[in-house]
Amino acid sequence: MQPALLPGDWVVARRRTGALDRGDIVVFDDPSNAGVNLVKRVIGLPGETIGVTDGRVTVDGALLADRWATGTTQPDGEWIVPQDHVWVLGDNRASSASDGRQLGPTPVADVHWVVTARYWPTTRAGAIGA
């Protein structure tokens, strides 16, 4: 999730209640590795079509104002987000693993937490917004 989150950062998260918003940083169970949590950013919302073409992300055909990403997004593809699901990506696209490109849409019911702030290291403490 670099640069938003770095290894060793300690964060505050609130229990998810209600709908998620594009840009939320969420915590959910890794479906392929029991007992492991993943931290990713919500990119696609229920009913949307997410596309990746030439390293750029689109939502329903419109270029995503992707201020969170570092690097290009690969591979090219298209994913439809079903109802009651979201589509997530890591911010460091070239190094991100286990996100929507590999896992497909994530059920909203599997998203347990939304990251709201960082408290360690104190030099980087503060709110983490969408």
Characterize the structure shown.
This protein is mainly beta and 130 residues long. The chain has one helix at 100-103; strands spanning 10-15, 25-29, 37-44, 49-53, 56-59, 62-63, 77-80, 85-89, 106-107, 111-120, 126-127. It has a single domain (10-127), classed as Umud Fragment, subunit A (Ribbon). It is built from one helix and eleven strands. The strands form two sheets. Strands 1, 2, 3, 8, 9, 10 and 11 form a seven-stranded antiparallel beta sheet that branches. A four-stranded antiparallel beta sheet has the order 6-5-4-7, with no helix packed on it. The model has no long low-confidence stretch (mean pLDDT 92).
Layout of secondary structure:
Layout: E1 10-15, E2 25-29, E3 37-44, E4 49-53, E5 56-59, E6 62-63, E7 77-80, E8 85-89, H1 100-103, E9 106-107, E10 111-120, E11 126-127
Antiparallel strand pairs: 1-10, 2-3, 2-10, 3-8, 4-5, 4-7, 5-6, 8-9, 10-11
Mean pLDDT: 92
Q: Tally the beta strands.
A: 11
Major sheet: 7 strands, antiparallel
**Approximately what portion of the residues adopt beta-strand conformation?**
35-45%
Q: How would the global form be characterised? A: globular
- Spell out the helices and strands N to C: EEEEEEEEHEEE
Q: What is the gyration radius calculated from CA atoms?
A: 14 Å
Indicate the CATH architecture: Ribbon
Q: Between the first and last Cα atoms, what is the distance in angstroms?
A: 13 Å
What is the level 1 CATH name?
Mainly Beta
CATH topology: Umud Fragment, subunit A
Number of domains: 1
- Unreliable spans are none
Tally the helices: what do you get? 1
